[in-house]
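Pilot study result, target chain (303 residues):
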Amino acid sequence: MHSAHRAARRGGIALLLLAAMVSFACGEDNGDKLRIICFGAHPDDAEFKAGGVAAKWAEQGHKVKFVSVTNGDIGHWQIAGGPLAQRRKSEVEAAARVLGIETEVLDIHDGELMPTLENRRKITRLIRDWEADVVMSHRPNDYHPDHRYTGVLVQDAAFMVTVPFFCPDTPPLKDNPVFFYYSDRFQKPNPFTPDVIVDIDDVFDKKIGAVHSLPSQVYEGGASGSEEFVAEVPEDDAARRAWAIKVHGSRYAAVADKYRDALIKWYGEDRGEDVRYAEAFEICEYGRQPSEKELRELFPFFE
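Predicted structure:
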C-alpha cells in the first residue's frame, strides 16, 4: 500500500510539474501581471471609454475584464427588451474578442439601475473575484442615471472590497485596488481632471474595431437614433469603418488635444506633441492612492 501511495504521489507531482512547464512555455505565468476590471453602465460604455488602454494592457499579457452593469435593453430607438439585450451582449462579446479581453453583462434593466445594497454586493463580489489591481468606472456626476449610479456603486465598493465580513462568501482583497474615473465633459459640481493620459495611436485600429462591433449604437444611433440617422450611415463594411474613424476618432483626438500638456508630462515633449488619439483617467479619492512611480507600473506604457 505504501509503495502504491508513493507511486500515486510521484504521478501527481509529475502532473503538476508538467502543467507548470506547459504554462511557462505558453507564457501563462501571470504572477507579475496586472488585473483590471472596468465597469460601464451599458454594453458600449467601457468599450468607448477604455477600449484603447484595455487593448494595450492585453497586448502585454495583463488580464482585463469589462462589465456592463445593465443589459442595455432600452438602448435603441426601434427595438427593445430581450432581443435587444441579447443583441448588445453579442456586440460586446465581439468587441472583447477584438480587444483580447473578457466581458460580462449583468441582468439589470437599462434605465432602472439603483444604488441598492444588493447591487453594492454584486459590484464588490465582481471586484474581489477578479482580484483587481485597477478598477475603472464613470464619475458619479453624469447626464445618465445609470452612469451616475454605476459610479456611486463602484465608489461604495472601493472600501468594502477589503472588509472581511461584508459579502463574507467572497474573500476580501488584501490590497485595495486603485480606482479610476473615465473622462467626461461635465463641469458641475466639479470637472474631470486627468491624472493619467494614454497614447492609443498604436492600438487605434483595435479601438475602432471594437467600436465597429457595436452597430446598434454606432451605426443605428442607439436610443437617440432614427431612420434619418441610419440613412446617413454607409452600408458597406469598409465605408462604415471609415465613417466610425471620422465620427468616433474625433472624440479621442479631442481628448489628446484637450490634455496635450498631460501627454507631454507623461511622454516627453517630442512624443507628447505627436500623439493623435488618447484616453484619459482620473484617480478616485477612494481606494489606494498611488504614487507616480506606481502609476507608471499600473500603466506600463510610458518610457
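One observation from the pilot: The CA atoms of residues 33 and 303 lie 18 Å apart. A full batch analysis is planned for the follow-on phase.
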